[in-house]
Amino acid sequence: MPDSKDSYKTNLKIQKWKKEGRGQGFGPNYKPWITIRDVSFDGRSHRIYGHKSQRTYHLLSDLELAAFLLLEWNPSTTDIREQYPLDLDQTIEIAKEAQIPHPKIRQNYHIVTSDFVVDTDKVETPRFVVQVKYSNALNDSRTIEKLEIERRYWAKQNIPFYIFTEHQVPKVIYENIMWLYPALKQEKISIDILERLDFYVDIFQRYKAKKVIDITKIIDTQYELEIGQSLREVRELIALRYFNFDLNIPFRSLLVEQIKLGKRDFWNEVLHASNQ
């Protein structure tokens, strides 16, 4: 047990946050160790709703937002826990072993956090950890030391640890997800839109060579719909995976023939259940 155990136990903020349940729980019950209210800096922070965990996430930079959206969109992801605290006793021991100064705030040991702990449905990788850093921060020796403490911590638990920089953000994929994400409503399923799936399938089969943006404008005009209504409906169907397309294709240039029918079996089950 570290000699400084008494000193860090006197840190009232740490004890208070533990009592609040921070860094504990899963899914909708998880509470991040650090929230937007706890930090003051010039960067951009974000509160965004996570549809898989059904709760609001606290993200401390644009790059964290980008990483979160990519993780959230991945169909194998089952849960994401942000600002996850590492056990202080273990990180102090790791720092001593590595001869690295442990992070402190006002002479009290500071709890190290990982940006994202991600659970998946993959047997070979049921959990992994992501730390988000802008690439220029990796030139700082102190940053590297802190990352080494974190890396060793997860290595002791046989959990993969990755560093995510702006160079790992595929621009087109990120823009597509940013376009699709607002269409993910909390209710998730809108029967009115689901009932229109066959309508769009029929239209798409007849106009395969047209851009999606162009064909939805034609639909709005021919059926006297509000301008943009068809595109919003198609976007929601894609966001909910009833239609799929290669996210490497910019949505503005997406052709109808590049859209594939997604989880139709589930769609049929929903409609069948709604009519019982």
TrEMBL record:
Question: SUPFAM superfamilies given for it?
Answer: Restriction endonuclease-like, Winged helix' DNA-binding domain
- Superkingdom assignment: Bacteria
The TnsA endonuclease C-terminal domain covers 168-247
Q: Does Cell cycle show up as a keyword for this record?
A: no
Against InterPro entries, the record matches this protein to:
Restrct_endonuc-II-like, TnsA_C, TnsA_N, tRNA_endonuc-like_dom_sf, WH-like_DNA-bd_sf, WH_DNA-bd_sf
CDD domains on file: TnsA_endonuclease-like
* Name of the featured protein: Heteromeric transposase endonuclease subunit TnsA
Q: Which organism is it from?
A: Acinetobacter guerrae
